[in-house]
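User: quick one, sequence for these tokens?
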């Protein structure tokens, strides 16, 4: 079980020059694989499942920056609040309030990205543009001192048609820049995975989440 070291070095090189952060998505992969990248100097790792990220964070070096990229249930925030670096998939005000509450317990400020639904597929996850604005306009948001809404996250349609993917990323980038003009704290645009990260960067992504190119295909669970 080895990581694709050559692919890592190439992708890392490609991204560093463009100021794009690489989140290595290690879900379903063993801690040994994470350590291999860690030893090459990598620190940003992404996971989708609460139990898995908690187990791995316990076993691995404390200077890893853990990204939660899956769908986070409100009742599970408490398990990750003391160590999580960035939560990518926030899609309700209720969840933001819970993150704030848990972060307060640890005297931390947790950075969050709001997930926007840009793909054609029907899924439960992600906000449409109206819902996004509603959250940003919440009066109560200013009182949430232990979170920071640092940007947006999105996933393009699952399709071979890269023009469709490009249009979706462009749309998200457009939403992102509009908000950024009013809020300088808004600085992260997390979009792009193994199959579409190049397109995502061309369309303005500054954080990509890459799994299979680095760790090999997953046997799904
Ligand atoms: C699994 C996952 C990724 C990584 O996918 P790859 O195709 O393996 O690069 C990125 N983002 C999210 C939200 C994921 O769930």
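Assistant:
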């Amino acid at each position: 079980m080895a990581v694709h070291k050559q692919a890592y070095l190439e992708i890392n090189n490609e991204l560093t020059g463009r100021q794009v952060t690489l989140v290595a998505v290690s879900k379903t992969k063993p801690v040994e694989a994470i350590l291999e990248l860690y030893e090459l100097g990598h620190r940003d790792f992404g996971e989708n499942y609460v139990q898995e990220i908690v187990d791995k964070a316990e076993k691995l070096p404390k200077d890893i920056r853990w990204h939660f990229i899956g769908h986070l249930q409100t009742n599970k925030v408490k398990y990750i609040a003391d160590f999580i670096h960035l939560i990518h998939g926030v899609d309700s005000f209720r969840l933001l309030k819970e993150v704030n509450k848990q972060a307060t317990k640890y005297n931390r400020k947790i950075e969050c990205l709001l997930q926007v639904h840009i793909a054609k597929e029907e899924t439960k996850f992600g906000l449409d543009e109206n819902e996004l604005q509603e959250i940003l306009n919440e009066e109560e948001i200013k009182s949430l001192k232990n979170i920071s809404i640092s940007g947006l996250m999105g996933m393009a349609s699952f399709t071979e048609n890269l023009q469709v993917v490009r249009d979706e990323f462009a749309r998200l980038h457009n939403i992102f820049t509009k908000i950024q003009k009013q809020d300088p704290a808004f600085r992260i645009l997390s979009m792009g995975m193994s199959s579409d990260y190049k397109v995502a960067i061309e369309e303005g992504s500054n954080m990509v989440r890459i799994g299979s190119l680095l760790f090999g295909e997953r046997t799904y669970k």
